[in-house]
Amino acid sequence: xxxxxxxxxxxxxxxxxxxxxxxxxxxxxxxxxxxxxxxxxxxxxxxxxxxxxxxxxxxxxxxxxxxxxxxxxxxxxxxxxxxxxxxxxxxxxxxxxxxxxxxxxxxxxxxxxxxxxxxxxxxxxxxxxxxxxxxxxxxxxxxxxxxxxxxxxxxxxxxxxxxxxxxxxxxxxxxxxxxxxxxxxxxxxxxxxxxxxxxxxxxxxxxxxxxxxxxxxxxxxxxxxxxxxxxxxxxxxxxxxxxxxxxxxxxxxxxxxxxxxxxxxxxxxxxxxxxxxxxxxxxxxxxxxxxxxxxxxxxxxxxxxxxxxxxxxxxxxxxxxxxxxxxxxxxxxxxxxxxxxxxxxxxxxxxxxxxxxxxxxxxxxxxxxxxxxxxxxxxxxxxxxxxxxxxxxxxxxxxxxxxxxxxxxxxxxxxxxxxxxxxxxxxxxxxxxxx
Length: 435
Ligand SMILES: Cc1ncc(COP(=O)(O)O)c(C=O)c1O
Known about the structure:
Layout: H1 2-23, E1 45-49, E2 52-55, E3 60-63, H2 78-88, H3 99-111, E4 117-121, H4 124-139, E5 143-147, E6 160-161, E7 172-173, H5 180-183, E8 186-189, H6 194-204, E9 208-213, E10 216-217, E11 223-224, H7 227-240, E12 243-247, H8 259-264, E13 270-273, E14 284-288, H9 290-293, H10 312-325, H11 330-351, E15 356-361, E16 364-369, H12 377-381, H13 385-397, E17 400-401, E18 410-411, H14 418-433
Parallel strand pairs: 3-17, 5-8, 5-9, 9-12, 12-13
Antiparallel strand pairs: 1-2, 2-3, 4-14, 6-7, 10-11, 13-14, 15-16, 16-18
Helix pairs in contact: 2-10, 3-10, 6-7, 11-14
The structure holds pyridoxal-5'-phosphate.
Pyridoxal-5'-phosphate binds at residues 68, 123-125, 128, 151-153, 214, 218-219, 247, 249-250, 274, 284.
């Protein structure tokens, strides 16, 4: 009887995917959700609770994706639910300022030293796109420098693939539909390569409006920037009158209360936030030096706007989240939990002398297959994605959901239980021992 029910139920997920595909391209509103890199039917979620999600077949999964890092307090946090519900009953959107916007802006300014003023938007893509426009408007220059394998959302001028190294800077787009005329204003350099950076700036430094970087890269899996590399970014931008933009859409309030800039002790001119600051709602922001931010309309000439920007329901969720994560010991406990999983796995990789590694910053980590260390896109290209796919299935079949690509980060929330972390650690080790 039980197996009949589960067989019948398992059909629902497949049907749901098929129905979604009929009316939504690929059945998804963001490509990674279609599981393009693994051999499993894409998940369709019914509901979630704390560190677990349940698919439409009723199958539970321990969630290590956490809405791609957004849910640092886990699913259905009661403080967030209450704040949002209260706001909803008083109106959900006005297109007019509300006091909660001042409250959350002030909190952000008080927590992150480099941020003197901030503007809220609806997605990380909007935050990076707006920060780049602002940098161009404030400096009067066009050129944006980014790094291979860093992802800054899907604005045209960020969808750029590098050639190899400094010599082939004629960037080509990594998406159809992006004109070459647009990507010619984006230079793509290798990540963690100080020499390439310095030689580029020697030649073209005075053309650069801004350098944008993920200080801890999360979009080729977790690859922390080297201290000297991040330091060199600050030096070269200052020397050449360019702005430094930290894309902390993932790392902001994730790797620590002051984000990656707190870890490195480097002050960017502008910072982009997203994910955690929305508490599971569509919120992102960009902020930084007041003299730069004041170039934005209505004070300045750089136009930027949004019907739902600073939406009060989403602001309440974000504010509630920030209130919780600033409590003393919050990040220490998150670190402790993450280490309880990562450290034993790393030990086993060493003991078995596997071509693998587990890289971590704060509560984000990636288990890489095929390399003992991953420092940049060149390394990432050599990873064993077929083995990752097997690993994904191994975990998935045990009810553990890790992001469905070798080039993504796993995230731990404050409500992941030690029992669930131990179960996941043991599954990871079992897979590694089976190799
Ligand atoms: C570092 C970084 N910047 C920007 C973005 C774009 O954010 P969104 O997906 O909210 O547009 C992402 C998305 O994952 C990201 O990881």
